[in-house]
């Protein structure tokens, strides 16, 4: 069985020409993205000045130096100069108007006798207009469009030189060389600008992805710790349900069966939770145990004094203020969040303000039913440089997520004297969100 070769379709010459001579993008003004208004208006000023100067000089040169009738000379001057006013937005369209006008003017001059060594086929004013348009096209269009513009200019020059070989070809060669240089420089500047914009966009995307990844990592870490809290409660439910028939005498068979069902459901839920949350734990979290289940209990408010003591040993003067005895009705999620927020706040002081006097305050607001955590540091008194000059933002992200988890509020920011303040309110019960319309 023979297999026919894959058919290849080639665009028609008309379609290729249409693609080459189609603008690369929307008519955005040159330097339109600049912040300065003066910079944005500069291309308009330059093209406007060229249009005004070329309008008068082209009509005068074509009429007096080349002997073209004044009405025809003024018509060519209008076609070659006035479209330059729109070249800032649509240089390729303007070139499609001006270049045929240049060819028509050269053809009209071909019918006239030569007057000395006048430049031909392109008068000096036409050359200036061509070079300006080539520069604007180079700054806006694709490489193949630049090649097409230069090729058409070269073909027109060769045709006129072939029709009238007795005239000097120096101007044509000079125009082609200068045009190639201008197009090359303009194209290089455009590609460099495109590369810088693409790099800036990529950096913006990378920064957004980095922030998103940081947020996900913090949420994963909080989920791992929250698993221990929930697992504890589920274990208590299981033990209470299993031991109920032994602790409570005289239970009917239906009640014992109900307690057994509750215990079985709690054990199943606990197993599923461990299986689901196991993928969130690192493999080395427990020294290589399968599933990475951590056996150490999660810290709480009662361990904040040990945290402060370790920070003082590290060289940071810290004063601690907290109630004694500690409140007993603090939920485990609030207990853990208060410890982690204090830990991260002290770590930030050590990294960014070594030696700064720091105050840690933990208090209970009975009226609002919440736990208040406050960490305030002054500006460092010594001249020791900070361990880090720019943070990653992981700490503040983690604090916000922990506060959001319990429905609390977080207030962070610099102080007028150069210090920093972290204040968190952690309610004992999750506050319900207001209904949305």
From TrEMBL:
Name by which UniProt lists this protein: histidine kinase
InterPro entries: HATPase_C_sf, HATPase_dom, Sensor_HK_TwoCompSys, Sig_transdc_His_kin_sub3_dim/P
Sequence ranges assigned to domain Histidine kinase/HSP90-like ATPase in this UniProt record: 337-429
The EC number(s) this enzyme carries: 2.7.13.3
Transmembrane stretches, start-end: 42-62, 68-86, 93-114, 120-139, 146-164, 170-189
Species annotation: Streptomyces eurocidicus (Streptoverticillium eurocidicus)
GO CC list: membrane
Catalysis: reaction(s): ATP + protein L-histidine = ADP + protein N-phospho-L-histidine
Ranges for domain Signal transduction histidine kinase subgroup 3 dimerisation and phosphoacceptor: 218-283
UniProt KW Membrane keyword: yes
Source lineage: Bacteria, Bacillati, Actinomycetota, Actinomycetes, Kitasatosporales
UniProt enzyme class: transferase
Keywords annotated in UniProt: ATP-binding, Coiled coil, Kinase, Membrane, Nucleotide-binding, Phosphoprotein, Transferase, Transmembrane, Transmembrane helix, Two-component regulatory system
Coiled-coil region(s): 198-225
């Amino acid at each position: 069985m023979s297999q026919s070769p894959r058919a290849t379709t080639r665009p028609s010459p008309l379609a290729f020409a249409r693609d080459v001579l189609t603008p690369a993008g929307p008519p955005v003004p040159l330097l339109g993205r600049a912040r300065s208004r003066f910079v944005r208006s500069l291309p308009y000023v330059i093209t406007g000045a060229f249009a005004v100067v070329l309008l008068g000089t082209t009509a005068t040169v074509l009429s007096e130096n080349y002997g073209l009738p004044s009405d025809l000379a003024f018509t060519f001057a209008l076609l070659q100069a006035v479209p330059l006013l729109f070249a800032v937005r649509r240089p390729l369209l303007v070139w499609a108007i001006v270049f045929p006008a240049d060819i028509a003017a050269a053809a009209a001059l071909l019918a006239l006798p030569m007057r000395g060594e006048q430049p031909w086929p392109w008068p000096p004013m036409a050359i200036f207009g061509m070079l300006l348009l080539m520069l604007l096209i180079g700054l806006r269009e694709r490489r193949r469009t630049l090649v097409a513009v230069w090729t058409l200019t070269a073909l027109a020059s060769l045709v006129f030189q072939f029709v009238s070989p007795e005239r000097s070809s120096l101007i044509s060669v000079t125009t082609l060389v200068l045009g190639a240089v201008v197009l090359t420089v303009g194209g290089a500047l455009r590609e460099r600008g495109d590369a810088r914009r693409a790099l800036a966009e990529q950096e913006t995307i990378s920064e957004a992805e980095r922030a998103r990844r940081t947020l996900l990592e913090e949420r994963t870490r909080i989920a791992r710790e929250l698993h221990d809290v929930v697992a504890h409660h589920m274990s208590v439910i299981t033990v209470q349900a299993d031991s109920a028939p032994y602790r409570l005498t005289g239970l009917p068979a239906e009640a014992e069966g109900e307690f057994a069902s509750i215990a079985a459901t709690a054990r199943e839920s606990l197993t599923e939770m461990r299986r689901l949350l196991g993928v969130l734990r690192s493999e080395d979290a427990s020294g290589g145990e399968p599933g990475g289940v951590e056996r150490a209990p999660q810290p709480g408010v009662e361990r904040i004094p040990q945290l402060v003591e370790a920070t003082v040993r590290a060289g940071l003067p810290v004063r601690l203020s907290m109630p004694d005895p500690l409140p007993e009705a603090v939920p485990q999620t609030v207990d853990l969040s208060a410890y982690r927020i204090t830990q991260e706040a002290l770590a930030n002081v050590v990294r960014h303000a070594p030696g700064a006097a720091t105050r840690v305050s933990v208090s209970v607001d009975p009226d609002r039913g919440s736990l208040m955590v406050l960490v305030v540091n002054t500006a460092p008194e010594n001249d020791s440089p900070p361990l880090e000059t720019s943070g990653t933002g992981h700490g503040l992200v983690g604090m916000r997520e922990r506060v959001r988890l319990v429905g609390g509020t977080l207030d962070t920011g610099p102080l007028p004297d150069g210090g920093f303040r972290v204040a968190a309110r952690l309610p004992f019960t999750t506050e319900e969100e207001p209904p949305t319309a």
